[in-house]
Design brief:
Elements (H helix, E strand, L loop, with lengths): L7 H8 L9 H14 L2 H18 L2 H10 L12 H13 L1 H13 L5 H14 L2 H23 L7 H20 L1 H11 L13 H21 L17 H6 L3 H10 L5 H13 L1 H4 L4 H10 L7 H12 L5 H13 L7 H12 L1 H5 L4 H11 L11
Length: 387
């Protein structure tokens, strides 16, 4: 898709010279987390061990019965691509660590399981009592909620480049805060493991602090690199509300040059004049994104005055920042397409109902009206009609 010489990107640009390729930001977040964990052997081993918890119970109903009895909670699996699965696993193991420890001890000491199961359960007991494993579990328990929040926001329908700038900045600020609090994280972790006084605990060594710092630094550096706005995306900084005071003092001429170069249909002189007026007006500073600013122009009938700014806003609003919405169509097709014989018309109708479920829910008595119409059909068959 992103091939600059022979891929889809190149073929589109051959037809539409001003088209610009944007890598899905939700996918880039997954790549950032993969990079932050895969190149550090001990962190990679930690997530490999974490995935073993769910795998251990999934292979046996007898083991799962003990899990249901002691922990009363199933363990989510992990995925190499979807980091929301890793987040669920980290949170579940962290919040139910003591119960899981008792569960594995029960399996190990009950005498009702075969030797391989007893051996694996003993390994998980030692893992949950290991200082390093517990520290990394606590570290990622702090990191993953911010990753989840950003991941969910990057999959919204109405996001634009201006909106993404703000949420990425909040994400990097949170990662920096976690990085600065790594020394104090050990104090919290030590307090949580004092429930086992017989277990001798060593202080957090420089190696663990270095690894934790390296994880945060990798996330920060790759987020800055992958989420940095280059070329046409720099145009989003022209309409970023929190930068308006800074732009009032010094106009962003370099960003304007890049924008006009990327979109030559814009009138540079007129756009600069309009942006100068926007930066000096306090009413525009309250707009949090490109869509909000565009709606403000439309509601106040200003599109005729700020023609170039409105044109730029239309470009920013319609520039896709994620492929999550189109991928949902494939997920929908997978859910509604069964092994039963299904005509194309029926498939299209079911797909439309599934994709537009929010619209359907807002129609009063939709289900009852459909049932009544179906019941009145003589041959009990009716085609779905859409207007």
């Amino acid at each position: 898709m992103r091939g600059a010489t022979g891929g889809v990107q190149r073929k589109v640009k051959d037809v539409y010279e001003n088209a610009h390729y944007v890598h899905c930001y939700a996918h880039q977040l997954n790549l950032i987390m993969q990079q932050a964990t895969s190149h550090i052997p001990r962190i990679s081993t930690f997530f490999s061990d974490l995935g073993g918890f769910a795998a251990f119970f999934s292979r046996s109903f007898k083991r799962t019965a003990v899990l249901d009895q002691v922990v009363v909670r199933r363990l989510p699996g992990t995925s190499t691509t979807g980091w929301n699965f890793h987040s669920r696993a980290v949170n579940t193991v962290y919040e139910h660590k003591d119960d899981l420890l008792r569960c594995f001890q029960t399996i190990r000491d009950s005498g009702n399981f075969d030797p391989p199961t007893v051996r694996e359960a003993g390994g998980f007991v030692r893992m949950l009592e290991d200082e390093d494993f517990c520290f990394f579990l606590a570290l990622f328990h702090k990191i993953m909620p911010h990753v989840d929040m950003l991941f969910n926001q990057l999959q919204k329908r109405n996001i634009d480049s201006v909106y993404i700038t703000g949420i990425i900045q909040r994400f990097t600020n949170s990662m920096q805060t976690i990085r600065d609090s790594i020394p104090s994280l050990h104090g919290e972790h030590s307090g949580s493991v004092q429930q086992q006084p017989t277990k001798k605990r060593r202080t957090l060594g420089q190696g663990e602090q270095r690894l934790a710092t390296e994880v945060c630094d990798t996330i920060l550096s790759h987020a800055k690199e992958r989420f940095s706005f280059t070329k046409h995306l720099i145009s989003a900084t022209l309409l970023q509300g929190d930068l308006f005071p800074e732009h009032t003092v010094k106009f962003p001429d370099s960003a304007l040059e890049t924008t006009v170069e990327a979109y030559p249909m814009l009138n540079k002189a007129k756009l600069k004049t309009e942006l100068t007026l926007i930066y000096e007006n306090n009413e525009f500073k309250a707009c949090s994104g490109a869509l909000t600013l565009f709606q403000f122009f439309m509601e106040n009938n200003l599109q005729g005055t700020f023609t170039e700014t409105v044109s730029l806003l239309r470009i920013l609003i319609t520039t896709p920042m994620t492929t999550a919405e189109s991928e949902r169509c494939f997920s929908t097709l997978k859910r509604i397409k069964t092994f039963l014989t299904m005509t194309q018309d029926r498939l299209n109708a079911l797909a439309m109902l599934s994709m537009e479920k929010k619209l359907i829910r807002n129609i009063p008595d939709f289900n009852n009206r459909v049932i009544e119409r179906f019941a009145t059909q003589k041959d009990r068959r009716a085609k779905f009609l859409y207007k």
